[in-house]
Amino acid sequence: MFKFDKMFNRGIMAAMSRLSIEIDKEQHRQIKTLATFAGMSIKDFILQKSLPQERQVPDATTALLSSPGNARRLRQALKTPRSQHLAFESLKDLKDALGI
Predict the structure, then answer these.
(1) What is the pLDDT of residues 1-41, one digit of tens each?
(2) Range 39-68 burial, b when 16+ CB lie within 10 A, else e
(3) Domain containing residue 59
(4) Who has greater pLDDT, 96 or 9?
(5) Cα distance between residue 10 and residue 6, in whole Å
(6) What is the greatest pairwise CA distance in the chain?
């Protein structure tokens, strides 16, 4: 069984490629924040933003940014130093803080 699993995993890895880019810590933090607001991993967020989609479905970031108040708060959050970041226990707490 172990031998089969090991062979299976090699097959999956052979079909995948790795992409690495050098970005500074602030750029990483901003991308991570946007991905989190969209409810996505960084990988999924970058892929969605960079590869054309057959059918564009508004993502969570677009929905959040459609409100001027939310867009202003998100821009402010991206400018806030890391030491001043807030941590939320739940999605409800986050929505309450954003006023949505």
Answers:
(1) 455 555 556 655 668 899 899 999 999 999 999 999 888 99
(2) ebeeeebbebeeeeeeeeeebebeebbeee
(3) 25-98
(4) 96
(5) 6
(6) 56
- Residue 9 belongs to some domain of the structure: no
Domain contains 71: yes
In a domain, 8, yes or no: no
Residue 14 backbone dihedrals phi, psi, to 5 degrees: -65, -25
Single pTM value for the model: 0.43
35 close to 44: Cβ distance less than 8 angstroms: yes
Whole-angstrom CA distances from 70 to 60, 84, 89 are 12, 19, 20
> Is 55 part of any domain?
yes
Q: Based on the structure, what is the number of domains in the chain?
A: 1
**Which is more confidently placed, 84 or 76?**
76
Please choose, from the candidates 70, 64, 62, 76, the residue with its C-alpha nearest in 3D space to the C-alpha of residue 30: 76
What are the residues whose beta carbons fall under 8 Å from the beta carbon of 67, sequence distance 6 or more? 100
Q: How many residues does the chain have?
A: 100
